[in-house]
Specification:
Blueprint lengths: L4 H19 L12 E2 L4 E3 L18 E3 L10 H5 L6 E3 L21 E3 L7 E2 L12 E3 L8 E2 L12 E3 L11 H4 L6 E3 L12 H9 L17 H19 L1
Parallel strand pairs: 2-3, 3-4, 4-5, 5-7, 6-8, 7-9, 9-10
Antiparallel strand pairs: 1-2
Helix pairs in contact: 4-5
Bound molecules: 2-acetamido-2-deoxy-beta-D-glucopyranose (3 copies).
The site of one 2-acetamido-2-deoxy-beta-D-glucopyranose has 4 residues, from loops.
Organism: Labrus bergylta (ballan wrasse)
Keywords: Cell membrane, Disulfide bond, Ion channel, Ion transport, Leucine-rich repeat, Membrane, Repeat, Signal, Transmembrane, Transmembrane helix, Transport
Subcellular location: Cell membrane
Length: about 240
């Protein structure tokens, strides 16, 4: 009677595959220690005294909240398995560096919060892969003094950018003006300097001040009138494109 042998072999095969799946970090269906996972694919790990990025995250995670911990690094390999991620809150951790590969595969990410960390600079390719990013909050990094001029150039879906309460003295707005969906930029609480190469930021914000709540203007030199008119024109042209 060979008949029962087939189903049995099949069951053995299924068990074998299931065991393998459970031990594979890539095909994880579990939930990380000290986190709560729900059936809406939300993983909540806020305020759990974590010092490292959680392991054993469900592959299909859509929202990941790791705020209020002491995580020092976002490991690119682990993070980029989560290709369905749309919401990532990393605020209030100890992140010092975001590399070019950190967000390499997060093409659906719409919300990113990096506020209350210890970042010092943002490189040019850092946010490049985030083509669906709508809101980026990056406030309250007390040592953040440098954002590359092209840092946001590929974030064409970006609507809200908040870089308030950092240590920025300059911000090159050339690529910001060109972003088609941008409607709000938070700039308050930075030690802006309005000298030489930063004039266009000051003028832009001054002319369109209603859009930029909380920007404090400190002129440290007088801008020549011809330069003011020229910059105003460029800025208005930039904004007309932005609004239409
Ligand atoms: C940051 O997280 C700690 C707990 O890890 C909490 O005590 C503190 O209030 C949080 N700070 C902010 C600004 O949310
Ligand atoms: C802010 O930047 C200035 C230089 O522009 C530097 O001297 C200062 O230490 C920075 N502040 C912090 C908290 O890193
Ligand atoms: C701003 O950035 C653009 C693009 O990288 C560059 O061409 C321009 O010279 C920069 N402006 C200033 C004032 O540094």
């Amino acid at each position: 009677r060979p008949a029962p042998a087939q189903p049995l072999r099949l069951i053995v095969l299924i068990l074998f595959l299931a065991t393998r799946a459970n031990t594979s970090p890539v095909l994880s269906t579990g939930c990380p220690d000290r986190c709560v996972c729900d059936d809406q694919l939300v993983v909540q790990c806020a305020g759990q005294h974590l010092t490292t990025f959680p392991v054993n995250l469900p592959l299909a995670t859509r929202q990941l909240i790791i705020s209020n911990n002491r995580i020092v690094e976002l490991p690119p390999l682990a993070l980029n398995y989560l290709s369905d991620l749309v919401y990532l809150d990393c605020s209030n951790n100890s992140l010092t560096e975001i590399s070019e590969s950190t967000f390499g595969n997060l093409r659906k990410l719409a919300y990113l919060d990096l506020s209350f960390n210890t970042l010092t600079r943002i490189e040019d390719r850092t946010f490049g892969p985030l083509t669906s990013l709508v809101m980026l909050r990056m406030t309250d990094n007390p040592g953040l003094s440098e954002i590359h001029p092209d840092a946001f150039v590929e974030n064409t879906a970006l609507q809200v950018l908040d870089v308030g309460r950092n240590n920025l003295t300059v911000l090159n707005i050339t690529s910001l003006i060109a972003l088609p969906a941008l409607r709000s930029v938070g700039l308050s609480g930075n030690p802006w300097s309005c000298e030489c190469d930063n004039e266009d930021l000051c003028l832009w914000v001054h002319l369109e001040g209603f859009k930029f709540q909380g920007f404090n203007l400190f002129y440290s030199n007088v801008i020549p009138a011809w330069r003011f008119l020229m910059l105003s024109y460029q800025i208005k042209v930039g904004f007309r494109e932005l609004i239409t």
